[in-house]
Specification:
Helix content is 79%, strand content 0%. The radius of gyration is 28 Å and the shape is elongated. By secondary structure, it is mostly helical. It has a domain at 236-289.
Length: 289
């Protein structure tokens, strides 16, 4: 009976008649409430038909009656795929009551909470992921960024210090850790990790910029310029590179290089108003030299 019903419903939905499939399945469930496979199929058709009220009803029926983790995960995945965010979260949370160590669902909850703007809930889920995957460098990196965005820099620093004991040469972790150390004024220690990141991936523009910025703050204009030079020679020079060069060019008295840099960036339409003052500072210095 169920196999025949499923085949009929799939035939209707396969031809685009989601409403027909919904009516067929709902009629069956009137006399057979709580049939998990049929509820799941009904939910799939309601989602496909854009029937939000009916989807909510199916969601309630599955969430209230199902203790089968696979049914909950399957329905949660349907909701997740079709953007039914709040319902997907609720179903996944019930699933995790039964399977609390499922890493994939904790990761999906991170995505869903970030999508809805619930950053604190996303942070909590990231910690659950890390507890299950203590050497997951991507999770540590993303969580550190979130923590920093929430003014929890000390917590982010402690988090990265821990994973770097396991993965001391991970370029991205070293880069992020150097940024956190620099943010707290620990430039000497930041230099160690920024150098490690840059040496591991010298073609990475972000790594090069961070290292040059830290060197400049440590009073090393010559070393700063050596690291920065390849970026300054590019006509699409990053504005961060221009900012750093503006701080070291008077100390190095690099009139020619400063003149070239001004030529490169003159007329670019991505220069914010504040940067015009920086460019003027370089021009004035050139005029006085």
């Amino acid at each position: 009976m169920i196999d025949k019903l499923t085949a009929q419903a799939n035939s209707l939905s396969g031809s685009g008649d989601f409403q027909g499939a919904i009516k067929l399945l709902e009629k069956y469930l009137e006399n057979n409430p709580g049939q998990q496979d049929i509820l799941l199929l009904l939910g799939k058709n309601c989602i496909a038909a854009g029937e939000h009220t009916r989807t909510e009803k199916v969601f309630r029926a599955i969430a209230d009656t199902s203790d089968d983790p696979e049914t909950l995960r399957a329905f949660g995945n349907m909701l997740y795929t079709h953007g039914e965010t709040a319902q997907a979260v609720a179903v996944y949370l019930k699933f995790l009551e039964l399977r609390p160590k499922n890493r994939a669902i904790w990761k999906k909850l991170v995505v869903l909470y970030l999508y809805t703007g619930d950053v604190e809930a996303a942070i909590d889920c990231f910690y659950r992921v890390i507890a299950l995957e203590p050497d997951n460098t991507d999770a540590h990196a993303e969580l550190s960024r979130l923590l920093f965005s929430r003014q929890r820099a000390d917590e982010a620093t402690e988090l990265l210090a821990g994973i770097l004991k396991i993965k001391p040469d991970d370029h991205e972790l070293c880069f992020l850790y150097a940024g956190l150390l620099a943010h707290s004024g620990k430039y000497g220690e930041a230099l160690i990790y920024s150098t490690r990141a840059f040496r591991g991936a010298p073609s990475n523009t972000g790594y090069r910029l961070r290292l040059s910025d830290i060197l400049e703050r440590l009073g090393e204009p010559d070393k700063t310029f050596d690291v920065l030079k390849p970026l300054l020679e590019d006509r699409n020079v990053p504005l961060d590179a221009v900012r750093i060069f503006a701080r070291i060019s008077p100390a190095l008295r690099m009139k020619y290089e400063a003149g070239l840099l001004i030529d490169y960036i003159s007329g670019r339409d991505d220069i914010p108003g504040a940067e015009e003052d920086m460019i003027k500072t370089i021009r004035d210095w050139l005029a006085r030299s």
